[in-house]
Design goal:
single chain; about 270 residues; mainly alpha; about 0% strand
């Protein structure tokens, strides 16, 4: 039952996020991109602070052991960003290049990537695959801890992958002959999430005592993406109505996670 839930959850998060990103990039939903960023930020923060961290602390692990893991996780994702940005700038001779958008926790910028479309497309797919594999492990960890937590984590991963995949589709679209091929390539990378989920199921089963630490690393990932990537993109000078809409969508993200948690608890 748990394994089946992991497979379904990782497929939903991995491939579902790609299709939603395509709808926002190419389809009728393109005008709602900013609202999706707010929604994703709220959902990620709610998942980290209201579900993953409490679950980790409820396991009986010492807070003095878990908080350093959280700190190391946040610093680790920051260093990943730095390493990827340095690599791109060094590779293409663009030192001092400024991104139009902040980068995701695996170093991919949302929107304009610094590398050329043709040479960058394979790098994008490789980075995507590694990132999705890690997401799969995190989702599996949550499902092993609790079915309800797994559902929430899968939805949170889906939410934070959408803006990331939108940036990837922009790069691949520029280097590919058509939108469909770009969508197929990113979907294949997203499917790697399920491979990560299968390995995560085996890994967490073998290392059950380490489960609280997996959950803390997952929360660090969500916190980093929300605070270092999504929210800075929302910090623009806007009208009162636009600001109110941002806050409303952010709170909707928090409410969505809370509602899913309540529904899953009923069915658990």
């Amino acid at each position: 039952m748990t394994l089946l839930a992991i497979v379904l959850g990782t497929l939903c998060a991995g491939i579902g996020s790609v299709w939603l990103a395509a709808a926002l990039s190419f389809g009728v939903l393109a005008r709602y991109t900013q609202h999706m960023l707010s929604l994703a930020a709220g959902a990620l923060l709610a998942t980290a602070f209201m579900h993953l961290l409490p679950e980790a602390f409820d396991s009986g692990a010492e807070p003095h052991d878990l908080f350093p893991v959280l700190l190391v996780g946040l610093v680790f994702f920051f260093l990943l960003d730095k390493a990827e940005l340095w690599h791109h700038g060094h590779e293409h001779g663009e030192s001092g290049h400024h991104h139009d958008h902040a980068a995701d926790d695996d170093g991919h910028a949302h929107g304009n990537h610094p590398h050329s479309p043709v040479s960058g497309s394979w790098a994008v797919l490789a980075g995507d695959s590694v990132h999705c594999f890690g997401d799969g492990v995190l989702i599996a960890s949550a499902f092993v801890a609790d079915l309800r937590l797994g559902v929430i984590a899968a939805l949170a991963v889906l939410a934070h992958e959408v803006p990331h995949h939108m940036g990837d589709l922009v790069v691949l679209r520029a280097g590919a002959s058509n939108k469909r091929m770009a969508l197929v390539k990113v979907s294949l990378a997203g499917a790697v999430t399920t491979l990560g989920g299968l390995l995560g199921f085996w890994l967490v089963a073998q290392l059950e005592d380490a489960l609280p630490y997996f959950l803390v690393v997952a929360s660090a990932s969500f916190m980093y993406v929300a605070l270092a990537d999504l929210i800075p993109q929302l910090q623009k000078r806007l009208s009162a109505a636009q600001t109110a809409a941002q806050i409303a969508w952010l709170l909707a993200g928090v409410g969505l996670v809370t509602a899913v948690s309540a529904l899953a608890r009923v069915g658990h």
